[in-house]
Each structure stands twice: as structure tokens, then as C-alpha cells.
Known about the structure:
Blueprint: H1 6-11, H2 39-46, H3 61-74, E1 78-82, H4 85-96, E2 102-106, H5 111-124, E3 127-131, H6 136-142, E4 147-153, H7 165-174, E5 178-182, H8 187-190, E6 200-204, E7 218-222, H9 225-238, H10 244-254, H11 257-276, E8 281-285, H12 295-301, E9 308-313, H13 316-326, E10 331-332, E11 342-344, H14 356-362, E12 369-372, H15 378-389
Parallel strand pairs: 2-3, 2-4, 4-5, 5-6, 10-11
Antiparallel strand pairs: 1-7, 6-7, 8-9, 9-12, 11-12
Helix pairs in contact: 3-10, 4-9, 11-15, 13-15
Amino acid sequence: MSDFRPETRAVHLPQPPVEGSRPIGMPIYQSAGFAFDDPELMGVAMTRPDDAFVYGRDTNPTVRALELAVSGLEGGAAALAAASGMGAINTVLLALLKPGDHLIAQRSLYGGTATMLNDLAGRFGIAVTHVPENDPAALRAAVRPETRLVYLETISNPMGLVADLPAMCATARELGVLSVVDNTFATPVLCRPLEHGADVVVHSATKYLSGHGDVIGGIAVFADPDLYGKVWHFATELGAAAAPFTAWLTLRGIQTLPLRMERHCANADLLARRIAEHPAVSAVHWPGLPAHPSYELAAKLLPAFGGVFSFELAGGRAAGEAFMRSVRLARIAPSLGGVETRVMQPATTSHRFLGPEDLARHGVSEGMVRVAVGIEHPEDLWADVAQALG
Length: 390
Ligand code: PLP
């Protein structure tokens, strides 16, 4: 390049040789496209997502490293990273459904997903039926000839309902229907839905996978490579691909995921139990409490019960707001899965687009407070919560 002029040399920058040693951390391949030595190789690479890299909307080495990591942890054949959790969910559903199809979803879900399912029904003529997350007979009764997909959450947001994955996924398979499971709350540390018969696992990587509140990302993991290939082709058309830096931050977070989950779950255990005993509290929704409807199933299916719970105060919405104004350590903030504890009210945030009827179906009351428990010292968290309840 030294024989070119500065204007040309500034464009065609030299790259250091990498032979002889390699980076321990995954490099960020911040490149929209990749250059080839031969035009024929580029044409071939275009058709093969897991071979050479061509264009960042199709795939990228850093993004591929994240896909391999999560696919490995979930026990899948392949994965597809997306720009957000909703990006991953929409990519999967839009790739697999067409107008006139029917989808069966569990009745209590993350509000964004519930709103999106309402949209699918209204705009694309895809009918949606809701069933309890643990009732294979209801699933069987809801199935129609045009049913394509069953949609579940391992641990539901925000009620903490645990889906009976072995029974629901086996029934879906028997009926010839694909099952898609949102494993955001459980992460592969607590549950690997593909091992229970699910076909696709989706995640908001914004939450525990990245773990530090600095990423918006999503990922879908597939048991069947052919199904992955079909969704990948649609994903390249949709254009909701993950960015390399997002993938890199998520990879970095994943390295401490098992450690963080241990602490999230232990802290939630201590807080949920103590809050449940407080006289101002009328209900706590966390599957680790024996009074929770999912307790027995959760104890069989999961090694721990997750880091998020919600609770209700006898004073309703005003009491919930007063509680949130009084906490000093916990942040009033959306989302979950970060190292710091967050509180919010689902009715005005994650589930805000749902009307009163839908909110009732999801079990979300106006005054409910959701606590996404962080990894701080548990007694500091309890002191904060106790003074706010007081
Ligand atoms: N799934 C669950 C269970 C969630 O809680 C969320 C977001 O809160 C999503 C999916 C959507 O993820 P994102 O916000 O990354 O699009």
C-alpha cells in the first residue's frame, strides 16, 4: 500500500498479522461486510450462514460466537441472535406463521409479547387462543387443524408461573405443533427447555444473559438445524440482526451467568420470604414459596426459583407507589436481570398496553410491584425493603 497516495492509504488500512497467537477474549468484528480473495467463494458463502462471513445482516464472527455460546448452553443445534428480545420473538413467529394460522399461548405472559400476539391477531389474521401454562388437556382441546405453534414462558413475567414444559411440549409434539419457549427468566442455568421437548427457545439477552443493564439484545435457539435454516433465511430479510458490540457485551456477561444466577436466586429467596411475612403485604408471587400455584412443579423442574418476584400491598396502587418512592437502594426502573435491584409496577410499564380484561387474565393488579433482585448483599437489600415497607 506504501506506493498509494494518502487518500487511498487512509481508506485501505493495514491489518496486523494474527498468526502465532490469538486473542483470549472474542474480538469485536465491527465490520458491515467481509472481503474475499475470490468472487466464487463469496457467492457460495452467501448461501451458508455457518460458513464464511459475508454481510453483517446475515451474520458476523462476534455474533456467531454468541450464537454458538447460547446454543451450546441451551443444548441446541443452532442459534440466531437478534437486536432485542422482541426482535428474536418476532423473527421466529413471523418466519413460522402465515395469515390464517392459529397459535396457542399461555394465558399469562410478558406484556410486550402479549401485545404483539394481539397485533398478530388483528393485523395478520393469525388467531390466538390462551390456555393455562400447565394444562396439556386444555392445549389438546384448543388445537385446530390450522394450529402451528404453542408459545410458553418457562417462568412467566411477572407472576412467576412455571410452565409444565415436559407435559406441554410433549403434547404439542404429539399434535404436530411446534413449541416455542421464552426462557429469559430461567436462563439455561435453571432450565434448558429443549431437553424437555421444546423446538425453539427465545431469550431477551437484555436481561440475565448480558446481565449488566448495558445491552438490548435477543436470541433464538433451535433444536432442529432445518428449522433454524428456515428462520435464518427470513431473518436476513427482516433485518433485525444483533450488532457485534451487543454480541460482545453479551458474551462477556455470559461468562459470569452461573455465578450471578446463584446470587440472584438466593437474594430473591430471602427477600420474597421475608416480604411475605410482612403485615402490609397481601400476596407475594414467586414460585419458591409453597403458597405459589407453581411451587410443586417448580421444585421438580428447576434447581432454584429465579430472581424476580412480584408482590401486592394491602393499600393497592397508592401503597405500591409509596413503597417505590421509599426504597433507597433499589432503582425505580424497567427491565430485570442486571446486577442492581430494580422495582417497577407492571400495570404502568411492561404490561401498559393491555386493557383491564387482559391485565386480569395475566393476573396483574394495579398496585402490584415487581422486584428484579440484584446481586447486592442480601441484608442491605432487606434493610432497604423493610424501611420502605415500614
Ligand atoms: N421476554 C421477556 C420474558 C421479557 O421480560 C422481555 C422484556 O422485558 C422480553 C421478552 C423482550 O425483550 P427485549 O426488551 O430485549 O426486547
